Each structure stands twice: as C-alpha cells, then as structure tokens.
Amino acid sequence: MKFEYRSQPIEVLYGKGRFSEIANVLRDYNSCFVIANERMNKRVELLRKSGNFEHVTQFAKVIQHVPQSLVDEAHEILSNNPADVLLAIGGGSAIGLAKAIALKTEHPIVAVPSTYSGSEQTNIWGISSEGGKTTGKSDRVLPKIVIYDSDFTKSLPVKLAVKSAMNAMAHLIEAVYAPDGNPITRLSALGGIEFIKKGLNILGHKQELTEEANEHLLMGAFIAGRSLCEVSMSLHHKTAHVLGGSFGMDHAGVHTVLQPYVLEYQWNFLSDEIKKDFTTKLGNYPAYELKMLAKRGGVETNLKSIGFKREDISKAVEIILSKPYANVAPLEKKALSDMLKSAYHGELKHKPKRGESE
Asked: Which end of the chain has fewer CB atoms within 10 angstroms, the N or the C?
C-alpha cells in the first residue's frame, strides 16, 4: 500500500450522441485539421457547415502502424493548410497519425475513437519505417479531449469488433500484473476486464454487435486506454508491436491471438493473489477462456491463420530480446520460442479436460 500514481489530464465526454457537441468542444479554435478516412466524410461535412471555423482540412489517408512517409505527407499538407487543432476521428491508426504530427508540431489533439483500441487515452506514440517500429512516450501527444460516442463504434463489423475489444483486453490483462502497478490501476483494470468479457459474451451469443455489447466494450476500452497509459506494458504488448512493426501483421489480430499464450508464459510467476484475480474474472483456466472469447466471436486464434510464418519465430525472438524491459517471467530465448510456436499452432499447454467446467 505504498505507491506513486499519476492520472492523465484528459477531458472526457462520454455518451451516445456526444459528437453532436463537437462545434462547442472546438469553440476555442479557428481552424481544424481533421484526420479521418472517407467513411467519416459526412461527419466532417457537418463540422464545415457549422460555420465555426475559418478552415477545415481533411486528411483521409490512414495506414496501420503509422508509416513515416505518411507522417511526412500529412505534415506537408498541414504546413500548407495551417490549423490550430488536430481532430482525429477513427481507430488507433488515425489517432496514432495525429500523435505523430503533434510530436513535432505540438498541436492539441481532440480524439473521437471509432474502435476499442485505447490509443486516445495515452501519451504513447509509434512510427514505423523499413527498420521496424519506433515507439515512445511524450505528453505532447496526449489528447486534450476525448469524445466517446457509441454511435461511432456501433457499425463495427463483428470480427473487427471482437479483435479490437481483444486488443483492449490485452492492455487490461497486462495492467493487472504490471511491475509498476498499484491498487488503483489493478482494481480499475479488473473492472475493465469485466466490461470486455461481458460485451464479448453478448456479442458471441448474438453474433452481432448489439447496443448492449457495444456499450460494455466501449467502457472497457476507455478503462483499458487509461491502464495502457498509467502503467507499463510488458511481454504481450512488446511482442505484438514486434510482429506488427517488423513483420507487417494486423495489430488487433496479433493482440487477439497472443493473449492466451503470453498469459500462460507469465502464469507460474504471478502471485497467488493475482492468479485469483484472473480466475475470479475469467474462469478457472484464464488463458483458455481468453482464447474462447475470441473463438466464440469467430476470429482467428493462431498466428498461422493470420499470416505469420513459422520460420520467422527465431527472428521475432531476437527482436523481442534486443531491448530488455521489466516483465513478470524471465525473458528467455527458448521459452519465448516455445510460446510463439504454441501461438503459431494455436495449442495451449493447459486447458480444461473433457467435461470439466472452465
């Protein structure tokens, strides 16, 4: 019960229909640079028609892992169309691009997430290049205001909703055992796990993103984003970024597949108290239940099915080990190789026996 805790200074507007207040939210700004793909054109047009801004410039090109070339292109357009605020509408890629721009220009960011990625709550930035993905932390990229409007996530395709929610779940799982965690972050993360699990169970049962499922997943994503910013991520997060940044894998898909195998890797090094936290929230076999949450949602649960090559396991392990970081379990070459092999084939070492309740 002795710890240090820092909460981020983000203003949050939460609730269905809150985007209708956007003109008032941006009342202190004269011109706006909007990062949003073409699916959001009608939303951007409403902003233009509000009459509150001298200029509204839209940058519609959004690419996963935020390539440096895209950052340069967006920055050049911004230079020719000056704005005093960045409005990012979309998933982690759109918000990530806004962060990459703000890292250099120090523009304030207003974020409206349309997935459950959690990027909108963090001061973490990432930019990819031919040499891999570079990440860092800077309060310059921390959004000033975040609008959580469930209307923006309700149209997510089922599989994308599942993978995006599992991405959020990954942040919550790691926050529970984070080396720099504390009672506040731990209890918050456990609450987020409840929201995500309930939302995914409803989605899996209905095979559609119902309003109830969407509301639970969005709240879980909000908590997950806070967790991602307030404590350090470990093996899962680092491995996902290696597979995404160095091997071009889909970010949310990798997060979805890896979770059960990383938790299994960490399990024997967790305290009995934290093990109990996981079994209470997820079931007697937490790693297995994470896999089943994804499987019930109809998404892939092994690396082979999402395009990772078995021969790349050794290279991936080398990259994972190249930059040491705090982790619950020791980071060992053979153990990491075995973990990725299990994830490649989709085979957990420990799962319920036939007829045994998880």
From this structure: N
* Rounded Cα gap, residues 92 and 96, in angstroms: 6
Task: Indicate the CATH number of 158-345 among 3.40.50.10420, 1.20.1090.10, 1.10.1060.10, 3.40.1260.20.
Answer: 1.20.1090.10
CATH class of 11-152: alpha beta
Cα-based distances in Å from 156 to 90, 94, 115, 152, 164: 11, 16, 8, 8, 9
Examine the pLDDT at 231 and tell me if it is beyond 60.
yes
Mean pLDDT of 336-356: 89
**Measured between alpha carbons, how far is 140 from 100 in angstroms, rounded to an integer?**
10
> Is 195 in contact with 220 (CB distance < 8 Å)?
yes
Domain boundaries for CATH 3.40.50.1970 within the chain: 11-152
**Per-residue model confidence (pLDDT) at position 84:** 95
Alpha-carbon gap, residue 319 to 316, rounded angstroms? 5
> Tokens 């799982």, residue?
173
Report which of residues 7 and 314 the model is more confident about. 314
Q: List, by residue range, all CATH 1.20.1090.10 domains of the chain.
A: 158-345
Mean pLDDT, residues 32-47 taken together: 93
Q: Do β-strands 124-129 and 132-137 pair in parallel, antiparallel, or remain unpaired?
A: antiparallel
SS3 content of the chain, % helix, strand, coil (to 5): 55, 10, 30
Amino acid 358: pLDDT: 47
Query: Residue 89 pairs with which residues in a beta bridge?
Result: 112
The predicted model gives 203-221 an average pLDDT of 97
Mean pLDDT for 70-75 is 97
Mean pLDDT across the stretch 113-125? Answer: 93
- Asked if residues 308 and 344 have their Cβ atoms less than 8 Å apart, the reply is yes
Q: How far apart are CA 148 and CA 45, in angstroms?
A: 20
